[in-house]
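Task: encode each sequence below as C-alpha cells.

Item 1
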Amino acid sequence: MTDMSDLIGIESLLSPEEISLRETVRSFVDTEIKPNIAQWYDDAVFPMEIVPQMAELGLLGMHLKGYGCPGKSSVEYGLAAMELEAGDSGLRTFVSVQGSLAMSAIYKHGSEEQKTEWLPQMAAGTAIGAFGLTEPTAGSDPGAMQTFAKRDGSDWILNGAKRWIGLASVAKLAIIWAMTDDGVRGFVVPTDSPGFVATPIKQKLSMRASIQCDITLTDLRLPESAMLPNAKGLRGPFECLNEARYGIIWGAMGAARDSYLTALAYSQERLQFGKPLSGYQLTQEKLVNMALEINKGTLLALQLGRLKDAGTLQPYQISVGKLNNCREAIAICREARAMLGGNGVTLDYSPLRHANNLESVRTYEGTDEVHTLILGNHITGVPAFR
C-alpha cells in the first residue's frame, strides 16, 4: 500500500534491517497499543503489562551495547521511537526514560559494578528506572537545584525534592542528581530506601497514559558505592538529556504522522455538501502542508541519526531537531483535530490526544525557549540565557 506520508521516497534511504525493525515496532503498536490507548488515556493508567513485550522487542536501552542491551544503531532507535509515538507519546516516553535517561546515566557514568548489576535487569524490563533532575523550582535551570547530598563518614545523606519524574512510583531505582560541596553529582538510589517517597501527579491534561511523580528525599542514606563515579557537574545529566532529546526528534514526527493520516482518512470518508471533505481545496491545502512538514521533519531526524551513528552529532544540532520537530508536530496535530470537527474532541480519534501529549513533549528535555537560546548562542557566539 502506498504510504501517503512519504512523498519523497525517504524509505529508500533506509537499510533493509532498519525497515524490518520499523515494521516490527509498527506492528506491535498497531496490535497492542492503538486498540487500547484511548481507554488507557481515559483511565489515566500506564499499562505495565506491555513492559515485558517492549523488552522482548529489544526496545529498552536499545542503542546501548553490552550488559544485555540490544546494541542497535541510533537510526534504528529513532525509527522505533517514531513508531511508538505514533501510538502515544506516553509510551515512547517510557522507553526514553528507561533507556535514554536512567540506563544511559549508568552506561555513560556508572562504575563497572553498577553497570553489571543494573543494566541487564533494566534491558529485560525486570527493573524500571527513573531519572530525577527537575525540581519544583528548577526546571530549565538545573544548576539552581536545591537537592543536596552531604557527607556523613563514608556515606551520603540526601535531602530535597524532585518533580515531573517519569516512572518514579513504579521504579526499582532512581538516578538522583544532587548538589554537593563539590558540585552536581549523580546517585543510583534504590527506591525502597528509607526516606524515598514517590507520589504520582494526578489530574493531568497531558501524558495521561504515563506516570510522572513528585519525589521527596528525607535523610536518605546511601553508601559511597551509590555515586556515579564518572559524572561531575551538569555535564553528566546533560549528556543523558541529549540522548532523550534525540529520541523526541523522531517521536514527535510519529505523533504528527498518525494525526495526518487520521485526518486524511477522515476527509476521504466524511461527506459535506454532497462530496468528500478531501475534494475541497482548503482541505487539500491543509493536508499538503502537514505532509510537507512531516517529510522535512523526518529527513531532519534521519540526518541527525546518521550523524549520531558516525559519532559527529553536536549538541546544538539536537536542539535544531527538538525545537523544529516538536513545534511542527504540535501544529500538525492541532490542525488535524480541527479537520475532524466536533468528532475530533473525542478519544475516538487520535489528533487531540497527540496534541495534548505534545504539550509535555515540547516542554520536557528543554523548552522551545531553551533550545532557541542554545541555537542563538551557536549562531552568534553570545550566550543570552540570563
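Item 2
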Amino acid sequence: MTIQQIISPEVTEPAPGMWSNCLKVGDTIYIAGLTARDKQLNAIGNGEYEQARVIFQRIEYLVRAAGGSMADIVKINIYVTDIAHREQVWKARREFFEGAFPVATLVEVSALAPGILVEIEATAMLGQGGRP
C-alpha cells in the first residue's frame, strides 16, 4: 500500500519538510491538526465558533480532494485552550455532520499557536459514510 499526499487548493500546505496536512493510505484518510490561520500564519476568526467553522471547512476540502465526504469521517480530536467554550466548537461541528457523529475526543491544552483557540485533526474511511 502506498502513502499518497492529498492537497486541496483551498488549504494552505505547510512549508516543505514540516508535515503533511492530509495523507491517504488505502481507503483511510489522516488529516493533521488544522487551525484557523491565513497564508501569513495569522489567526483568523473571532472566537471558538468561527475558528472551528474554518477548520471544519478545511477538513471538508481535504476529504473531498481525497474522493470522500464529511460522512466518511470516523474520528476527530479537538484541542481547545478554554474548555468552558466547548459549546461553540460543538455548534460549528453540527453544521458539518449529521446522523451518527464521528467518535470524538475534546481536550483542553494550555496553549496553541498565538491567537489560536482550536485545533482539530480527523480520520476518515473513504466510502464508509452510509451511517444513519
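Check on item 2: Residues 48-65 form the longest helix (18 residues). The radius of gyration is 14 Å.
End of task.
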